[in-house]
Design a protein that fits this description.
By secondary structure, the chain is of the alpha/beta class. The protein has a single domain (3-247), classed as P-loop containing nucleotide triphosphate hydrolases (Rossmann fold). The chain has nine helices and nine strands. The chain is globular and about 55 Å long. This is ATPase.
Length: 256
């Protein structure tokens, strides 16, 4: 069966679609068959990203490895048929969830073999994972962590395997080091209490916004004629390489 990767967080603007696109495309470029579903039926940022890629490849007559974008079905259960259609031919299926609480997102979390939760490195985003006292002490899990816990319980009752939950600290900056340390310390404390791993995601870079209209990722730049990469682009590729290694997905050896 395909290994299901879910990218989820109940807050918008945390980098879910950028993370989804780069992880899915990296796996495809390493030779894996990758399916993709965008569960945000209104904004569809991930779906549009993949559609932009397909259009750019056709227009420029390029051969770029591309995840297969599936379509949600009609009816009361749009997710199961869509997954079944992709599972027959995919090694991995990546589901990008909306930045809000929906039934589709709940269903997706119960199916996750690997759950990636991108978050901006701030206590605003941290509040979705845990409640804190005014003194900065972790009081207990918050709304999103409680949903993940419920998904884990449902998987256990169904005899499915555990969810490998990885929290990504996105947009880490060189400034505000005191706040950075406080968020990092709180995440490490919480990770031991509710069971997730913490890793570094992507820094804030203009290149990510520039790539979207053509559906490209950092790994495609040389294929479209970019002769030399800037130091920022090289650093971003290393961030992606580190992320793929940290995810430790079955059968994946990083080759880029």
């Amino acid at each position: 069966m395909a290994h299901i990767i879910v990218v989820g967080n109940e807050k918008g603007g945390s980098g879910k679609s950028t993370t989804s696109m780069h992880v899915a495309t990296a796996l495809a470029r390493m030779g894996h068959k990758v399916g993709a579903l965008d569960l945000d039926v209104r904004q569809r940022s991930f779906g549009r990203y993949l559609e932009n890629r397909s259009a750019f490849v056709r227009r420029e007559e390029l051969d770029l490895p591309t995840p297969q974008l599936g379509e949600l079905a009609e009816g009361s259960d749009p997710l199961t048929p869509a997954l079944q259609a992709l599972e027959a031919e995919c090694d991995f299926i990546l589901l990008d969830c909306p930045g809000s609480h929906t039934r589709l997102s709940q269903m997706a979390h119960t199916l996750a073999d690997t759950l990636m939760t991108p978050m901006n490195d701030s206590f605003v985003d941290f509040d979705l994972l845990a409640r804190m006292s005014p003194e900065g002490k972790v009081i207990g899990p918050s709304i999103y962590a409680e949903m993940v816990w419920a998904a884990r319980q449902m998987r256990a009752e169904a005899g499915a395997g555990p969810i490998d939950w990885v929290v990504l600290r996105n947009r880490l900056g060189t400034q505000a080091m005191h706040n950075k340390r406080k968020v990092g310390g709180a995440l490490e404390t919480l990770s031991k209490r509710i069971g997730f791993r913490v890793t570094t995601g992507f820094s804030e870079r203009v290149i990510f916004r520039e790539l979207f209209p053509r559906g490209l990722t950092l790994l495609d730049l040389k294929d479209i004629g970019t002769e030399s990469l800037s130091m920022s682009n090289i650093a971003a590729r290393q961030e992606l390489r580190d992320l793929i290694q940290t995810l430790d997905l079955p059968g994946v050896k990083v080759r880029f």
